[in-house]
Design brief:
By secondary structure, the protein is α/β, with parallel strands linked by helices.
C-alpha cells in the first residue's frame, strides 16, 4: 500500500484512507522512520487546511513528539509548526519561478506586497534572490495568523533579510484599505490567497498603479473559471489589465487545481 505524504523539514505527514486500522498506521510509520534517516517525526493528517487562518490538524504516529521543524528550500530556511501555520512544500517550485521572473524585471527601490504570506516563504525567497544580486526593494509580508507572523519574523531574522522584509500581522484587506488612504502604491503584488470564494482583487487594486504586476492564486477545475473571476473583478473596479498569463501550480484535490496567474495593471 502506497500512502500519500508531504515532507516538511524532518516531518513526514501521511494521509491514510478512512478505514486503515491504527495498528497498521503505527507499523507503517515506524517502518518509514526506520528506512528514512532524514525523518524524525511521522504524523497523520486528520484534517486538511481550512478556515481563514488556513490551519490543519495532525496526529502523532512515530518518532519525536513535536510538530515544529525547519524546512529548507531555494537556499532558504523556514521555521514553522505544521498545525499552527499554513505552509506548503509543494509550492517550492512556484516560489522559485516567481522569484526568478521578478528578478529579471524588478527595478531599484521597487515596492512589493505579499498578501496571505504565511510564515513568509515567498517574501524571503524574493529577498534572498535580490540580496544575492545586490538589488534593492521594500517587501511587505502580510498575514492574518498571529502564530504565522511570529514564525515569519523569526524566519526573516534567520535568513538575514531584515533589510528587505517587513512582516505586518493583520487582515490583508484592512491593510490595503489603510495603505490606500495614505496613497501608498506597489510595483508588485503577490496574492498567495487561500481557497476561498472571495478573490480580494478589489483590495489589491486599491494599492496598485499603472504598471503594477500582480501574481494571483486561483482554484478551479480549469483555467477558464479562474480567468472569469479575475476579469469580472477587474471590470467591477473599472480597471484594465494585460493578457492573463496562467500556469498550473499543482492540484489541491480531486479535479481541482491551483493556478498561478500573472498580469499587469494598465490604468
Amino acid at each position: 500500500m502506497r500512502i500519500p505524504l508531504d515532507v516538511v523539514g524532518d516531518i513526514a505527514i501521511l494521509k491514510f484512507s478512512r478505514y486503515v486500522p491504527w495498528i497498521y498506521k503505527k507499523y507503517y510509520g515506524w517502518k518509514l522512520l526506520k528506512n528514512n534517516k532524514h525523518f524524525k517525526v511521522i504524523l497523520e493528517k486528520t484534517s486538511g487546511f481550512s478556515g481563514v487562518l488556513r490551519v490543519q490538524t495532525t496526529k502523532w504516529i512515530a518518532g519525536e513528539r513535536r510538530k515544529d521543524t525547519i524546512h529548507r528550500e531555494n537556499d532558504c530556511s523556514f521555521y514553522l509548526d505544521v498545525d499552527e501555520t499554513y505552509f506548503s512544500p509543494r509550492l517550492s517550485q512556484d516560489r522559485k519561478i516567481i522569484a526568478e521572473e521578478v528578478l529579471k524585471i524588478i527595478k531599484p527601490k521597487s515596492r512589493a506586497l505579499i498578501m496571505f504570506a504565511g510564515v513568509s516563504p515567498l517574501p524571503i525567497v524574493l529577498a534572498k534572490n535580490l540580496k544575492r544580486n545586490k538589488s534593492s526593494a521594500e517587501i511587505i509580508s502580510s498575514e492574518l495568523n498571529k502564530k504565522a507572523c511570529e514564525y515569519g519574523e523569526k524566519n526573516v531574522r534567520m535568513n538575514k533579510v531584515g533589510d528587505y522584509v517587513n512582516v505586518l500581522c493583520g487582515d490583508s484587506r484592512k491593510l490595503c484599505d489603510s495603505l490606500a488612504k495614505k496613497k501608498s502604491k506597489f510595483d508588485f503584488i503577490f496574492m498567495m490567497r487561500p481557497n476561498l470564494e472571495e478573490t480580494f482583487l478589489d483590495a489589491a487594486l486599491k494599492v496598485s498603479r499603472k504598471g503594477t504586476i500582480i501574481y494571483y492564486h486561483g482554484f478551479s477545475e480549469g483555467e477558464d473559471k479562474v480567468s472569469e473571476e479575475i476579469l469580472n473583478d477587474i471590470k467591477k473596479a473599472k480597471r484594465k489589465v494585460s493578457k492573463l498569463e496562467i500556469r498550473k501550480a499543482g492540484d489541491i484535490g480531486v479535479r481541482k487545481n491551483r493556478y498561478s496567474v500573472k498580469f499587469k495593471v494598465l490604468n
